[in-house]
Structures are given as C-alpha cells and as structure tokens.
Amino acid sequence: MTLKYKDIFFLILLISSHLSLAQEDDRRAIMDTVEKFFTSIKTADKALLESILVPDSLNISTTESSDGEIQFTILNYENMVTALTRPGRLAIERAWDETILIQGNIAIFWAPYDFHVDNEFTHCGIDSFQLIKKEGQWLISNASWTRETENCPESPLGPIN
Predict the structure, then answer these.
(1) What is the distance between the alpha carbons of residues 138 and 96, in angstroms, rounded to a whole number?
(2) In whole angstroms, what is the distance from residue 39 CA to residue 109 CA?
(3) Number of domains composing the chain
(4) Tens digit of each residue's pLDDT (9 = 90 or more) over 87-138
C-alpha cells in the first residue's frame, strides 16, 4: 500500500490534533489544581490544600525590603499548610494572565497575583508553581512567589467582593 501526500498530511493532522487536545485537557486540569489552591486559602480548607500538594514540598517566597535587601522565607510542607489555612481571617488570592508550560508529567504555572486579607489589599507578586502529574492528577510539588507591596499593577479582575 502506497501512502499519498494527502494521506500523510491527514495522518499528521490527526496526530497533532490529538496531542493538542491532550495538552488542553492537562492545561484545564492544572488550572483546576491552581483554583483549588486559591479556594483552600479563601476557605481555610486544610484537607483541600493537602489534596493538591506533594507531601514534603518546599516553598519559598521572596520579599525586597525598603533598603533593597532581599529576604527569603522558606516554608516546609507543614508550615505552608498551616500558614495558608489558618482560621480567623478571610484571605483571597487571585491570579491572571497565566503562563502554563507542560512537558510530559511536569508543568509550570506562572502568573501575577494579588492578595487580600479581610478585604484589604496586602501585597502582589508573581506565583510560580511547579506541578507533577501523579496517577492522573496534577499536584503542586513546589511553590515560589514574590511578595511586593509597592508598584503593584491594578488587577484586571477588578475589586474583590
């Protein structure tokens, strides 16, 4: 059987559209994991947060002081879960204009964000989440973020409600 150019083109188109659909499914699943991360912060839902984090993950934030000194805060898994789900406050984190890179079973989520506590803006920055796909589920294996209090861009998401 001889394949014609038309048949080869159709075969390539079919394979590439299948790969594109799989990539889009992974992108949606990654966004679902990120949304669960933000929901767990807002609702102080420890079980939800733990369901999307890789145990023993390492998490790092950076802050620049007014004199230009860079400070790093390193949170182990337990400290991260405790800090983000502490009761008695309404914390809202929102991200937009995300970039998602996927290769096989690893991915990166990168996006600007803003953070509010009890309806007051506290800081903005960049979220960088590294994810792994384990048993069909995307999990955050590492989170890094900047904490900026000055020169924050206005969120395209508008005011929080």
Answers:
(1) 19
(2) 16
(3) 1
(4) 999 999 999 999 999 999 999 999 999 999 999 999 999 999 999 999 999 9
